[in-house]
Amino acid sequence: NNPVMNMVGQTYEFESISEWFALGKRSDPVTRQPLNDTRLVPNIAIRSQILEWKQQNNIGNKGEDKDAKKTPKKEKKEGKESWRNKPMAKWKCIEVQAFITQIGESDVWEEYADKAMNEKVDGVILKELSSMEVATGFGFSKLHALVLKKAMDKLQAERKQREDEEAKQLSEAASNLAKSMPPKKLKHGIRVLVRTQSSGRVCHLEGRLRSFSRRSDGRWDIQVDAPLLAPKRRTFIYSDNSSEFMIPPEERLQMGVGARVIGPFPDLSAEGGWAWYEGDVKAWDGQKATVQYTDGCTWVARYPASSHMLDIDRSEQLLSLQSLAALGKNVEKVPLIVIREGKKRAPDPLRLGTRVLVRSKGTNDTGCFLEGRLVDWKELKDGKWEFAVDAPLLDPKRHTFVYEKDSSAYLIPPHQKHDDLKISVGARVVGTFDDKAVGGGWAWFEGEVT
User: Fold this and answer.
1) 450 residues of the chain, pLDDT tens digit each
2) What is the distance in angstroms between the CA of the first residue and the CA of the last residue of the chain?
3) CA distance 42 to 56
4) In this structure, which long-range contacts are made by residues 154-161, counting pairs with CB atoms below 8 Å and at least 24 apart in sequence?
5) Biggest alpha carbon distance in the chain?
6) If we measure between CA atoms, which residue out of 443, 445, 450 comes closest to residue 425?
7) What pTM was estimated for this model as a whole?
8) Distance from CA of residue 4 to its chain's centroid?
9) Which of 105, 103, 106, 118 is nearest to 152 (CA)?
10) How far apart are CA 319 and CA 302, in angstroms?
């Protein structure tokens, strides 16, 4: 009733060969030839001969044959291809038959599995299809359902792999695009303050960003014109926290206690006779800010101040030592730019401008300290505090430490005046001495009063 042919060309009754495979056999029952592929193909020629013999010998259900003959030619023609264009859940027997007669084609299972996935065919529909019986005796059996499931799993895995590869390519393309774009802060013509020193104090000189370009290592070079410097054109590697320059924020940040600000002051020892200095706001009443600067000085200034110095375009034209000298007569008019909003109060020893002695080595590896000044601090995620020190006699000049009360890397002398601490036998002191083995030729050395 149901002749099928295996992959070595032998023909068997479908139910019988299915039982053979169900027992775990993977060879031909007659020739014993191993079968790497257990697919079965309907043997249409043998099937036709069997039907013809049955008709000649009046064997079988004549009504069934009569009904089969009455099948419209149009329906037969449509049945061969209509399974491709109709939802599986609505297949008729003729669509199932048309599909089964083509399962020997290598691409049919993949095409069918793709169709099944797109229509989200589940186990219920497969069960219904597997229970269907067509006029010729072929049905969508459990074996067919298993083959279909394997094909679906394979295609699903291939689709997932393609989607993952496409997502990875898109991610890499987005990452490459982001790397090729300059940082948001870099805009032609913006103010860039170049960090320098005046009489050992850290300050900034006015500059303007003229151009920027990407380096081969992915970082960015910026070219800054600073008219009060020699040479005027300087090149830096861009960094958000550079020790060589500062880019003030374009938007106005909120003033308040703990805010970091910069303000310009006359300074005859600086190139051009003036410079920008950093400071922290210690008090704020809504109109006036008390600022402690990194050089240890404290000044009170109104905020905001209406001054051409906050406009870089007018600043380059009008700013002069004379205009700053006039501001110096009334420090409340000194303009301030907030470069960082207020933050949590740091431990008491961490004060802007505080002397910090950085541990080093002198002659014969003798322990000593080199002069430094605390210029910045921030709270870390673990609750500890990090602070930055500018030590002009060290290379590099800027050093960063995690604050500890008893550190082996630095020493923060007490804030009290020297005459507030009593000197006596056993007291610990530091004093300065010449030492050619260290930068600058001198250092602080520790000792004990005997």
Assistant:
1) 788 888 888 888 888 887 787 777 888 888 888 888 777 878 877 877 888 788 777 776 444 444 444 444 444 444 455 666 677 666 666 666 566 555 544 455 566 666 666 666 655 555 555 554 433 344 455 555 566 666 667 767 877 888 889 888 888 887 777 777 888 888 888 889 888 877 777 888 888 898 998 888 888 899 998 877 777 888 999 988 788 888 988 888 888 888 899 988 877 777 767 788 899 998 888 788 999 888 778 888 888 876 656 666 666 555 555 555 555 556 566 788 898 887 666 787 887 778 899 998 888 888 999 998 888 878 888 888 888 888 887 777 888 999 988 888 999 988 655 456 788 899 999 999 998 888 788 999 999 999
2) 117
3) 23
4) 154/113, 155/110, 155/113, 155/114, 155/117, 156/117, 159/117
5) 133
6) 450
7) 0.44
8) 58
9) 118
10) 19
Q: How many CB atoms lie within 10 A of CB 158?
A: 11
Q: Which two tokens stand for residue 331?
A: 């420090």
Strand 260-266 to 385-390 pairing: unpaired
Residues 251, 253: Cα–Cα separation, whole Å: 6
- Compute the distance between CA of residue 318 and CA of residue 442 in angstroms, rounded to an integer: 42
With CA atoms as reference, report the closest residue to 351 among 262, 258, 283.
258
